[in-house]
């Protein structure tokens, strides 16, 4: 059941991306959405990379000629999938907030201020 929810989340993000190609841009365009997704994916992937790592020295199974701290089983595919699902969820929240104007970015005080000239 959990896997179906993950596929549904990714499918929803994919459908929104396809729809952005045909709908007017009101906040997050197609290219902007893809770029935000890819940058976020890399950041999350690098964040989840060290999870559940056991070094060879911890299992007393050091392969001769290799680094003792090298992982026994890095599980890269699992971590890529986890980063993809987390990124899809974060991207969907960001898309909803920006596209529907739930937060007006111009009203944030820490952002850049623009001066309008006549």
Fraction of residues in H or I helices? 40-55%
Question: β content, as a range?
Answer: under 5%
Distance between the termini: 58 Å
Number of spatially distinct domains: 1
List the secondary-structure elements in sequence, H or E.
HHH
> What sort of overall outline do the alpha carbons produce when their principal axes are compared?
elongated
User: Could you tell me the mean pLDDT?
Assistant: 82
The largest sheet is:
none
**Uncertain regions: pLDDT < 50 for 5+ in a row?**
none
Q: What oligomeric state is this?
A: single chain
- By secondary-structure content and strand pairing, the structural class works out as mainly alpha
Query: Helical stretch count?
Result: 3
What is the total tally of β strands? 0
The whole-angstrom Rg is 20 Å
Please give a structural write-up:
- This protein is mainly α and 118 residues long.
- It has one domain (2-102).
- It contains three helices and no strands.
- Helix 1 (2-20) crosses helix 3.
- The longest helix is centred in the C-terminal third of the chain and has 24 residues, at 76-99.
- The radius of gyration is 20 Å and the shape is elongated.
- The mean pLDDT is 82.
Task: Summarize this structure briefly.
This protein has helices at residues 2-20, 30-48, 76-99.
